Write the structure tokens for this entry.
Amino acid sequence: MKIEILGTGCAKCKTLYENARAAVQEKGIDAEIVKIEDIQAIMKYGVMSTPALVVDGKVLFSGKTASAGEIKGLL
Amino acid sequence: MEYAMLKSFADYVVFTILGLIPGSRSGEALDFFIYDTLKIFLLLTIIIYIVAIIRTSFPPEKTKRLLSHKREYVGNVLAALLGIVTPFCSCSAVPLFIGFVESGVPLGVTFSFLISSPMVNEVALIMLWGLFGWKIALIYIGSGLLVAIFAGIIIGKLKMEKYVQDYAWEMQVGNAEIEEQTFRQKLDYAREYTQELLKKIWPYVVVGVGLGAFIHGYVPAEFLAQWAGPDNPFAVPVAVALGVPLYSNAAGVIPIVHALMEKGMAIGTVLAFMMAVTALSLPEAIILKNVLKNRLLAVFFGIVAAAIICVGYLFNAIL
């Protein structure tokens, strides 16, 4: 599984990244987590408000963060 | 507005429990502080929550579709109005800007949105409504929308597309298919958003109201009339210039400005100052520099500042 956190480096983007990492660890699944800060790569997903959570190429949400628990539910 | 219960509570705490004397400076200042803080937090909690629920129905991706290929005038008006309900954070200004222009939203229309969105924001409106009353809050919304529409139309007329960074035009923009949230998710989002925002702004509100209460109690009346009254033609531009570095601190600035108005600052000057605080922000300019060449950035700031100064003079003359 590939989890991407889209964001140009705001505080919320960092929170989302940390929470996604915690979610993966708690769930004990094998997933690669990457932070995407390049604007070109972010625009490719059509995301206009950051941070956004992308799992296996699909945008799950944008413009907000989520707790580790919520992310666990989405994975 | 009537908040009789809050007023009785503040009176009870200050004059009965703490035993301060009604009419004394310290008593009145503390009474004012408790009453205003309670009133503002009550309004902030309720209204931010409601606004957050409304906003879940207007994600920027939808706003972009509504504005795509709209003509000027109609597009500028619609963009300024959508700016009120579409959530906006200056940290997302770059993807938002590129998403707009790439999908065929005209440059001037994009600017109407970018100006209105931070300026007509719920925190500023609640603070204005709570402290100055609904009339001033409505005047602020109305003139804020006018500034956004007018500045966007001018930027559109100036045909400044070539002053957008070239890469913005060449970018591949995908179409995110984000699922519509359920009502339950919307409520959760609104609750989190309200908590987050309150956590961020409460210190500014408390310090702002505290300073306001101090000015209210200790600074002599008409103290500012000489410098910031309606007769000083330089008051408005100076207020606008002072507003730029105070970006995004509407929550802390409005209570102070409210107290300054009591001491003789003219209402047009107050409005212009508030607009400069919310609309002209230095960090936003730095972020927008990633997509705008210097000339367009300067034109954007110049036109918005000029429009705000006009609003200030207008209301100093008619109110």
About this structure: Chain A touches chain B at residues 8, 10, 12, 39-40, 42-50, 52, 59-64 (CB under 8 Å). Residues 51 and 64 of chain A are 6 Å apart (CA to CA).
